Amino acid sequence: MADQTITSVSREHRKFRPSAEFKAQANLGSDAAYKRLYAESVNSPEKFWDRQAKEHLVWRKPYKKVLDWNPPHAKWFLGGKLNVSENCLDRHLGTHRENKAALIFEGEPGDVRTITYKQLHFHVCRLAHIFENMGVGAGDRVAIYLPMIPEAVIAMLACARVGAIHTVIFGGFSAEAIKDRINDCKAKLVITADGGWRRGKVIELKANVDKAVENTPTVQTVIVVKRCGNTVNMREGRDVWWKEAWDGAPNSHKAKAFDSEHPLFILYTSGSTGKPKGVLHTSAGYLLGAKLSSHYVFDLKETDRYFCSADIGWITGHSYVVYGLLSNGSTVFIYEGAPNQPEPDRFWQMIDRHGLTILYTAPTAIRAFMRWGDNYVLRHRLDSLRLLGSVGEPINPEAWMWYHTMIGKKRCPIVDTWWQTETGSIMISPLPGVTATTPGSGTRPFFGVVAKVVDDKCNEVPRNTGGKLVIMQPWPSMLRTLWGDDERYQRQYFSEFPGKPGVYFTGDGARQDKDGYFWIVGRIDDVLNVSGHRIGTAEIESALVSHPAVAEAAAVGRPDELKGQSLCVFVTLKQGQVASDELKEQLRAHVGKEIGSLAKPDTIRFAAGLPKTRSGKIMRRILKEIAAGGEVKGDTTTLEDFSVVAALQAED
Ligand code: PRX
Asked: What pTM did the predictor assign?
C-alpha cells in the first residue's frame, strides 16, 4: 500500500552457532559447502535442479528439459512422468523402511495408532481403488475436510495416486467457506468425518459439510470417516461411510504415471480481496522442493521422529507433514487436538511418550506455552529433542529465547523458516548444522532462492533498510497459477514492478542486516497474520457488510502479544440500527458463520464514520493507529473529514 512505510526496529545481535556435535552429524555441516551449493543453485539453476531431481525423485519417464520459464509461468522437468504417491510410499517398500512407522497418531482422547510404510501404502491403494470405482480420476477435484487423523494423509496420497487434485479445507472453516471453495474448484467428491475432537468437544464436521453441499451442484459423493461416533445424517445415494466403501476394495494398486506439471493440489489462501485464492501446485517441482528442504532444514535422519503441529489444512501440513517427510521415508507424528488438552503440557507429554526428536511449530503456540508457565514444561524431560523449528509469522526474540532455553535446553538449533502457501516449500531458513542463528531472523535463503529486499522500483535497498521482499528467479515448488484466475495470478504476484515480469512479489516487508541475514517485518498488503494464519481484511469486511445491520466495515490488525496480530474492526451501522454489545456478539457470530471461528474479530468498534480519502478510499493506516491506541501520525492532508478521526479517538 502506498500510504505505508516499512519500518524495522529490531536490532538483535545475539548469535547462536551450531555445536560441534550437531555439525559433525549434520546432513550439511560446513559453511563452505552451503556457499558452494547455494552459488551453484542460483548461478546454474538448471544444472543444480537436474542433479537434485535425479537424485531425489523416482521417475517413470525421464524429463527432457529442466525449466521452461516464460514469465510469469514456469514449467519444470518437462516431458517427465512420475507418481507423487509412489514417491512417498512405494519407493520405501522392499527396503529397510517397509516396516518403519510412517505415521504415529495420537488422538485428543489419547488413542494411539502407528502405521508403517507398508500399511500406509495398503490404505492408500485401497482408497485409490475406491476413487476409481466412483469415477474419480485424473484432474478431478476432491475436497478434504477432516480432523488431523491418519485418514487425512491417506486421502491426500490417494488423490495423488489417481491424479485427482485435492483441496484440503481446514476444519475451522464454516459451511459457507466450504461451499465457496468447493464451488470455486467444482469438486466432485468430499471426504469428511462425523466429527473431530477439540478441547474435549466434538467439532461437527459432517453437519458443516451437509450445509455446504446443499449449494454445491458438482458434489456427487461424500465419504465419511467415523471418528467421534456422534450422530450424523447420511443422505442415501450421496453419503457413504469410509469403512463401508473400504470393505471389499482390492489392496494393491498400480499407480499411473503423470506429467511433471500435472496438478497436485489447490490450497485456498487469503489475499487482499474478499475472494480466497486457489493456489495451484503441481507434481514434480513441488515434491522436489518439499523433499530437499525437509532433508536439509530438518536435517532428517533415519531415526528421527518428527512432530509438526500444523494442521493438514495449511500448506505446512501439506509440505512438512505429508509430502516432504514421507518422500524422505521419515516417521511423522501427528496429533489431533488442542495443545492444552487436558492440560497445557500435552505437547511435552507426547514428546516424552513417543521420543520425538524434532518439533516444528508456530510462534503463536510458543507464546501461549510461555504464558501457561514454565512448570508445565519442567515436568517433562524433553531429552529426545534435537532440533526445533518455527513457522508462520515473525518470531519475537523473547519467544525465540524461551523456545531455545526451555524447550531446546540450549542444545537444539532453531530453524526459523520463512515461506508461504505460494512458495510451496521453505525459502529462507538457517541450515541447522551450518548457520549461526540470531533470534528473530530467518537468516539466509535456501538453495535456488534469489531473495532481495527492494524499493518501489525494484532496486535493492542498502543493508538495514526496509523494503519489499521479492524473489528474482523461478524455483521448482513455486505456485503455477491461481485456480481459474490466471490474470489474478499475474497481477498479484508478478506485476509489482513494471518492466520486470519475472520478479515474484511476496507481499512481505523485510530488511537484510549487515551479514545479509533476512528479517521479515510482516505483510505490507491488506492481509493480516493472526495466530500464524493469513486473513484478508477484505474477506472480513465483506463478511461484516453481508450482515443486515452493517453499512460499512474496515478491518485492521493490532499488535498482540499472543497472536502476533489481533483483529480489530470498525463498523458503521445502517440508519435505524442501534449499537449494542449484543449486536457486537451477533457480528462476531456472523463472521464465524461466514468464514470460520479463526476470523472472528477480537475487537469491534462502532463508528459514526470511517476516515476516507477524498476519492473515498478508507485510510487504514489511520485506523491502525487508532486501533493500537496511539496518536494519529503522518500525513492526514488527504483525509476528507478530520472530525471522523477525532470522533473515533474520543470514543477510545
Ligand atoms: O508474512 C509471512 C508469514 O506468513 C506468510 C505466509 O502465510 P501462509 O501462506 O499462510 O503460510 C504460512 C506457513 C508457511 C508470509 O508471507 N510468515 C511465514 N513464515 C514466517 C513468516 N513471517 C516471518 N517469519 C517466518 N518464519
From this structure: 0.93
Q: How many whole angstroms separate alpha carbon 316 and alpha carbon 294?
A: 11
> Over the stretch 567-624, which tens digit does the pLDDT of each residue have?
999 999 998 999 999 999 999 999 999 999 999 999 999 998 888 877 777 888 889 9
Q: For the residues of 478-532, what is the DSSP string, one character each? A: S--EETT-HHHHHHHHH-SSTT-TTPEEEEEEEEE-TT--EEEEEE-SSEEEETT
What pLDDT is recorded for position 632? Answer: 78
Atom of ligand 1 nearest to the CA of 507: 16
Residue in 280, 390, 417, 420 to alter for ligand 1 test, most ligand atoms within 8 A of Cβ: 420
According to DSSP, residue 373 is labeled -
Convert the pLDDT of each residue in 401-446 to its tens digit: 999 999 999 999 999 999 999 999 999 999 999 999 999 999 999 9
Amino acid (1-letter code) at residue 649: Q
Domains and CATH numbers, the chain: 20-68+81-442 (3.40.50.12780), 527-651 (3.30.300.30)
> Which mutation among 320, 391, 598 tests ligand 1's pocket best, with the greatest number of atoms within 8 A of CB?
391
Ligand 1: residue whose CA is nearest its atom 6 = 420
Please tell me the residue having the least CA distance from ligand 1 atom 14. 420
Does residue 629 have a pLDDT over 90?
no
- The answer to whether residues 286 and 315 touch, using CB atoms and an 8 Å cutoff, is no
pLDDT computed for residue 195 by the predictor: 98
Ligand 1 atom having least distance to the Cα of 422? 9
Among 265, 422, 529, which is best to mutate for testing ligand 1, by the most ligand atoms less than 8 A from CB?
529
Residues with CB under 6 A from ligand 1: 269, 315-316, 390-394, 416-421, 442, 506-508, 520, 522-523, 529, 534
Burial of 456 (0-12, 13-18, 19+ CB in 10 A): exposed
Among candidate residues 16, 97, 18, 96, the one with its CA nearest the CA of residue 386: 18
394 CA from centroid of ligand 1 (Å): 8
CB 353 within 8 A of CB 125: no
